[in-house]
Structures are given as structure tokens and as C-alpha cells.
Amino acid sequence: MFWRNAVCLALVSLCATGCASGLSNVWKSPGSVVRDPGRLVGKPKYEKDVAKIVTIWESSHGKGVDDRNTRGFAGQILFFGPGCQSGGRVHGKVLIYQYDDYDKDSEEEPKLLHTFAFEPDAWEAHRTEGTLGHSYSVFVPYMNRHKDQVNCALKVELIMDNGQKISSQETAVLLPGKNTTELAAARTRGFVHEKRIGPDPDLPPMRAETATPPEKSGIESLSIPLPKR
């Protein structure tokens, strides 16, 4: 009886210290323990057989290689095993290929601009866990110096510890130029730029129809559309 009570006390103490985070995840999602017993100690397992990589990219701003603010691409990357419905945790080297002047309809190979390499520990720092499972969020700067609008593409490749390689599809992303947003806003403000108010002298005069024209009022009104918001 003494030893049984001692063992129970030790288990309670262990769970209260080292396994607190793991147990909290168990209470939130009991079914996850069946798929991933490692959650009991707060360390989910690695996906050993990645079958598919899904990436979501969009233009954004962040820190460049010189630690200065620059335009680039923000991505969310998920790795799926065979038959898995949620993203898995991976361990391996990750390469992100950045292509410049990308044309998906071209028969030529896309022009590789830069390759970003992440060692396993560095890639693990980008991992988060949510409703989609394990996902990795990362920002990569645009590695060309010009500020014009350009079509780019990005591809992710995982090299696992056993040498297995799996790549995503190339994802095309439009990177706006410095003045693109300002020019687009100027065209859609709806302001009246013409100084002339009245009929256009270049158009033929309007012909009177059979209906009797209304009597001219002493008050004339002019309607100007409000700016679009």
C-alpha cells in the first residue's frame, strides 16, 4: 500500500511540473492523443512520410537581409502525410526558391532569383499550431533592388533526415510597385477633373422631339457625383 501511494504521488507531481502543457492540450483535444501520443509530454511527433506541401503566399513587407524594411512575401506552409487532414510537424532542411519575372504560360524554365535555406532548428522556430494543425509562417524578402511591379513565384522543398525530398507547386505572386497603389487610388477617387461644365461643343446638337419642351425655370441646378469611397 505504501509503495502504491508513493507511485501515485510521484505521477501527480510529474504531471504537475513537466507535463502541464501536454495535459492542457489533452483536455482541449482528447482525440489528438490517439493520433499523436507525444502530446502527453508536450512534444508532438514528426511527420515521417510527407506526401504533400501546401503553401499560401501574399505580397507583404518585413525585414530584409540587411535588417531594413523591404517588400517581399509572407507565406504559410503546411506539410501533410498520407491520408492526413491536418498539417504535421517536420524535421529537415527547407529550401524556398524565389523566381523573378515569372510567366506560368511560358515553356522556358523560370528564372531563379534566390534560394533561401533553413536548417532544421531554424525552421522549427517558425512553427505554430492551430485549427489546421502544425503550420509554418515565414517572410522572405524580394531579392531584386528595383521597385517596379513584378510577377514572381515561390516554391518550397523539404529535405528530410532520411534524404527524402518533397516539393510544392510553384505559386505565382504579384508584387506591387512603389507607385502602383497611389496610381490606382487616383483613378478611383471620382473627382471631377474637367473645368468645362455644360454640353460638349464637339458633339452634334440635340434635336427637339415632338414633346413640348418645359418652360425655363428661373433657378438652374447642377448635380455633381460624390467621390467614390
Can you describe this structure in just a few lines?
This protein has helices spanning 2-17, 20-28, 31-35, 120-124, 180-187, and strands spanning 52-63, 69-80, 92-100, 111-118, 127-130, 133-141, 150-160, 165-167, 171-175.
Description:
There is one protein chain. The protein has 229 residues and is of the alpha+beta class. It has 2 domains: 2-41, no CATH class; 52-182, Immunoglobulin-like. Helix content is 19%, strand content 32%. The chain has 5 helices and 9 strands, in the order αααββββαβββββα. It has helices spanning 2-17, 20-28, 31-35, 120-124, 180-187; strands at residues 52-63, 69-80, 92-100, 111-118, 127-130, 133-141, 150-160, 165-167, 171-175. The strands form 2 sheets. Strands 3, 4, 7, 8 and 9 form a 5-stranded antiparallel sheet that branches. A 4-stranded antiparallel sheet has the order 1-2-6-5, with no helix packed on it. A hairpin with a 5-residue loop joins strand 1 and strand 2. It is globular, with a radius of gyration of 31 Å. The N and C termini lie far apart (77 Å).
